[in-house]
Every structure is written in C-alpha cells, then in structure tokens.
Amino acid sequence: MARDPRLVQLGAFLHARRDEAPPPASAETGRRQVPGLRRGEVATLAFVSDEYYTRIEQGRVMPSADVVRRIAAALGLDDDQTQYALDLVTVPDVPPPNPEPSDPLRRLVDRMGEIPAVLVGPATAILAWNAAAARLMTDFGAVPPERRRYVQMLFTDPVLQSRFADLEAMRRTTIGIVRASSPAGPPTGDWIDELLRTDAEFAALWERNDVVRPHTHLRVRLRLPGGVEETVDQIVLQVVDDPHQRLIAFVPAG
Known about the structure:
The protein is of the alpha+beta class. The protein folds into two domains: 5-87, lambda repressor-like DNA-binding domains (434 Repressor (Amino-terminal Domain), Orthogonal Bundle), CATH 1.10.260; 103-252, 2-Layer Sandwich (Beta-Lactamase), CATH 3.30.450. The chain has twelve helices and five strands. A hairpin with a 5-residue loop joins strand 1 (117-120) and strand 2.
C-alpha cells in the first residue's frame, strides 16, 4: 500500500531539521559521524521510543499533534516550522486548481494607483497585478499564464531576479511559502519537475525542505529600474473568503 504523502513529507522535513539541529552539549563531537542530532537523541528528548520516531521519519506512522509538538521542541523548530509539521498530521486542505479572483479584487489591485500590487493564488500563481507592479518588478503580462508564478519567475525571469538585492533570500522565502502552503503533502507540478531538472540552484533550495508561513509584513531591499536601491515593506493581506489568495503591496519604507 502506498504511503500517505503527508507522512512521507513529514518524515523528510523532520530528517532535514534533525540534520541541522545542534548536537547535545554533552556530545563528543569528534566521535560523531552524522550531523545534527541522532534519531535516538530526538526520541529521548521527545519522550517516544527510538522505533516509533524512526517510523515517523520513514513516513510509516501518523503521530499525534502532542507528539509532533514534543518533536518540534526537541528539534528547536520555530513557530512556522512547528505549524507546518502540525498541518501535515491534520486533514489536508487542498487548494482549488485554477482559482479566479473576483472582479472587485481585480479592480482593487488596478486602482491602487502608484502602490505596486499583485494578487497571488496557490503556489504563488500571479492572478492580477497593476501597472505600478509591472513597472517595479517585471512585465507580468508578457509571461504565459502557465509560467506566471512568483516563485517560478524568481528562477526564470532575469528582470524580476535583478530587482532583489538579496535574490537567494527571496528565493528561499518564496520556496518556503510554497511548501508551507501545501498541507496535503509535498507540492507537485510540472513546473517543479522542470526546475528540478534544469536549475541546480532551485534543486538545492528545494531539497532543503525549508518552510516559511506567509506573514503580514516583510522588509525587502529592491533594485529599482535605473539601478537605484530602495527598501520597501512587502505587505501581505489574505482574502477572507478564499485563504489561497493573497494581496501583496510594496510600500516604500518609512
């Protein structure tokens, strides 16, 4: 029987975080042959058996939320990482495959004037944008709809890439958001497969299994057309009646 993809992803995620966790203060680092924590060390800290924790990492058992919280504490996970792990052991929330923004939302984005704004959906698909966003970021209208994803364009659109003073940080953040927004298991799609085959940087970041939950505010350093750098506040507002859609506005930092 095929294993639940949520459990497979949970195991891969915990394994990646375990490799990054600092070893116990009492450990003799010169004798350790693995990075981070051993499975048995995590099991001890989480008050579960070695066998049970091993089965969790292998994607063979559904742990309770309480066990997930104890493992998260043992690994030193932050709030975003802990919530992602908890999402994987709850009922999956599958986004609609082809969301369409409402007409009022489209008009709102268009009428935000000189405030650059984009509306994104599942997997950061760009659903709408205004003229100010096209001037600031890139000509979204020139990109075919099936390739018009914010995360995808951070690896395929040279103009959009050139706008970020710290492109790698933005790539890591956006990939983390895509992963964290897929509680049904690891995100899938032809665009992911294509980037894994053709872009070594994407593959390396993807395999890190990092997660980042969308937050209301993120400060970003941009390179504007003409080479001038400016710090902007990226403001994210979630659509109440469709949590898979978010309005992102770029406001010059005060």
